[in-house]
Amino acid sequence: MAAGGNNRSRLLLVILLVTSLFLITLDLRGVSITKNSRSATQSLLAPVQRGVSDFFSPVGNFFSDVKNFGKTKAELKDLKSENAKLRKKVIFNKDTSGQLKKLKGVLDLAGRGGYKVVSARVIGKGSSSTFSQTITIDAGTNDGVNKDMTVMGEFGLVGVIKSATSTSSIVLLMNDPTFRIGVRIARSQSVGVLMGEGDNTFTLQLLDPSGSIEVNDVLLSLGSDNNRPFVPGLPVGYVKSVKNTSATLTQEASVKSYSNLGSLGVVSVIVKVSNGGPKDALIPRPTPTPTTTIYVTQSPTPEATN
Amino acid sequence: MSWSRAGFSALILLLFFVVQESAISKIDFPISGFSLYLCVLLGLMALEDRFGAIAMGFIGGLILDLSPSSDSPFGKWALILTLVGYLFSRNRESIGDFTERPMAFVLFVSAGATATLLIFLIFGVILGENNGAVLTNLQTVVGNGIWTLLFSSVLLPGLVALRNYTLTSRERL
Fold it and tell me: Where, by residue number, does the polypeptide cross the bilayer (chain B) (predicted)?
């Protein structure tokens, strides 16, 4: 009896393994049934994600706050003073005002760059078990969003549209390990490739062996044919440190992105670029700090008056 | 494993899949994310016999393959979880009935979740996928294992009760 059960299980195991391998082969050969099934799931999940997004965002933020607690004392002090200011705003509507601020930043950057954009709310995040860095936004083909369009945040590049349904789209974030983008260094105009690594660090590899990288160099997107998947001139990040790699022909550097990919509330999808892009107009400029001049006048002593 | 229980389990898995994709994945857990779906699936698989664990692994894998955020080929999760179902049932036969030993059950499911993600990464390497930095991936695997350990102690008693509810009178004997 037990042997019979084992044989039945083994037969089932073999059948299911073969079926799985068959499905993988179909998917790798680009059969649309498997691709469409994910799009259909996305269409079904989008309304639920949209509904849960409003209700669940305070819980998600709570865990995020716990995670970053105690990073540095200075940061904590700054946050405390900032928190006091924000408390007043919370009474009004914390979530809405935060999203409006981000939207203003995104639209401001898009306006300066001459980009025509479609703004969207982030309604979902990719599951950690898939090892891919994605977000779901509430804009789709009905809003003019299509696959391979650039997605930007209030400070610069965020990612690219991976797939789109009528009402929602999946964005492949720039820190995904499969993400690659051509960039140019604003200072030297050297061209390189920026690669995501799954976390918050990025690697820049120059294509030109004679090119040079310096710390704090600003990186702008190079752009693609017909501006898809990437539009030109969008701020991507800045060089944090230059790697000393004698084994490679070209220089490498560690890069920090302008966008905080962990706290995206509102993003914009660039649907059109006017006049060939913004060139270097979007290079982030440091905000000037006001200098204070103090004049000291010596007061007359009693001896001097005598 | 009866057809009715297979259908019921698939419905439960679908429900947890929706919860995972729309709510749990939005939480920014310390260390790394937590897969509630994987925890529930492995919990259900651990309670089945060999035939049931393999079948449930395949069904659960197919549901997970539907994840819109997934970059891996469709069928990869089904393949991995079918294999995990087989390995689970083999080990379970040597350990015995879990329902009387909750600690063993929790540890088994947590170790299973960790092993499943590791197998997923190894298969990714075999299929030539780019999984990113090794350290980040290990952090995800370990983090998920820790969260599964913490949450499974709360979730699994409920799963056992749910599963007992779906048993036929013949299976109860």
Answer: 31-47, 103-126, 146-165
- In this structure, CATH architecture of domain B3-172: Orthogonal Bundle (1.10)
| Residue to test with chain B: of A7, A54, A127, most B Cβ within 10 A | A127
Mean pLDDT of A159-178: 90
| Average confidence score pLDDT of chain A | 80
pTM as predicted: 0.66
CA distances in angstroms from A65 to A61, A102, A120, B18, B136, listed in the order given: 6, 19, 24, 25, 21
Q: From A2, which residue of chain B is nearest by alpha-carbon distance?
A: B50
Distance of alpha carbon B112 from alpha carbon B128, whole angstroms = 24
State the DSSP code for B129: -
Q: Residue A167: enclosing H or E segment and its boundaries?
A: none
CATH class of A175-258: mainly beta
Alpha helices in chain A (DSSP H): 2-28, 32-68, 73-113, 302-305
ipTM passes above 0.90 = no
Q: Is A9 on the interface with B (CB under 8 A)?
A: yes
**What's the whole-number mean pLDDT along residues A26-49?**
81
DSSP structural state of residue A288:
P
